Amino acid sequence: MVRFEEVTKLYPPDITALDRVSFSVERGEFVFITGPSGAGKTTLLNLILRSELPSQGEVYVEGRPLSRLKPRHVPGLRRRIGIIFQDFKLLVDRTALENVALALEVQGLSLREGRHRALATLEAVGLKGKENKYPPQLSGGERQRVAIARAIVNRPALLLADEPTGNLDPRLAEEIIELFEELNARGTSIILATHNQSLFIERHRRVLVLDSGRLIN
Ligand SMILES: Nc1ncnc2c1ncn2[C@@H]1O[C@H](COP(=O)(O)OP(=O)(O)OP(=O)(O)O)[C@@H](O)[C@H]1O
């Protein structure tokens, strides 16, 4: 699904965000990426999205080398990837349903079909009955569920999550990870970056450890 081959990412003048990183994530895998602040986790996700290009080495997504992907094919790549951030990035003046349905608009789905799919997805993440609430009327955990619904409504092959439980208390964080487990069980590949070890301890998932841009495990 994703392969890094000796990937180095430099930021001028002297930051080595990633240093000769190599790993693969197979289709259907659920992998955690951890390491302290500044270790390179977000940079690694940005490279998969082709928001950044490597200084050296190559990133492959579904076998395609991203440095050779034509700019006009980048939107197509990103449509196959769902993204979830720590700070949700929801539109506060749109309802939960609208936030999720908007992700489908670009696909040319009819409004009716879009709302139908958005509603089903909100239900799948445990938000039945909350579809007409605006983000400020929802709890932190509920807002993160809306963000997850928005990321998966397109049925992406791959889900990237960057500190998706960062602002949530441990119980809600656990619930969100359970939700990822369910998505993974239904076939979505997941790469989840977090500095919070309690999220993956005892989960028996593969954990990639970054330290100062180096993969140390
Ligand atoms: N656009 C950029 N320009 C310059 N330096 C950057 C840029 N993006 C990241 N860096 C630097 O690269 C290094 C890795 O950053 P990155 O955000 O990938 O780490 P992280 O592990 O995600 O950290 P955090 O957990 O704090 O988000 C850091 O030293 C950071 O300051």
Give an overview of the whole structure.
- The protein is α/β, with parallel strands linked by helices and 217 residues long.
- The chain is 31% helix and 26% strand.
- The chain has helices spanning 41-48, 74-79, 96-105, 111-124, 140-152, 170-185; strands at residues 2-11, 15-25, 30-34, 56-61, 64-65, 81-84, 158-162, 189-193, 206-211, 214-215.
- It has a six-stranded mixed β-sheet with strand order 6-7-8-3-9-10, sandwiched between helices. Strands 2-1-4-5 form a four-stranded antiparallel β-sheet, with helices on one face.
- A hairpin with a 2-residue loop joins strand 9 and strand 10 (214-215).
- Helix 3 (96-105) crosses helix 4 and helix 4 packs across helix 5 (140-152).
- It is globular and about 50 Å long.
- It binds adenosine-5'-triphosphate.
- Adenosine-5'-triphosphate binds at residues 11, 15, 17, 35, 37-43, 195.
- Keywords: ATP-binding, Cell cycle, Cell division, Cell membrane, Membrane, Nucleotide-binding.
Helices and strands, with pairings:
Elements: E1 2-11, E2 15-25, E3 30-34, H1 41-48, E4 56-61, E5 64-65, H2 74-79, E6 81-84, H3 96-105, H4 111-124, H5 140-152, E7 158-162, H6 170-185, E8 189-193, E9 206-211, E10 214-215
Helix pairs in contact: 3-4, 3-5, 4-5
What proportion strand? 25-35%
Q: Can you count the beta strands? A: 10
What structural class is derived from the secondary structure elements? alpha/beta
Total of helices: 6
CATH architecture of the domain at 1-77 and 193-216, by name, is 3-Layer(aba) Sandwich
Order of helices and strands: EEEHEEHEHHHEHEEE
In this structure, how is the largest beta sheet organized? 6 strands, mixed
GO molecular function, one term: ATP binding
Membrane topology: Peripheral membrane protein
Domain ABC transporter: 2-216
Main location: membrane
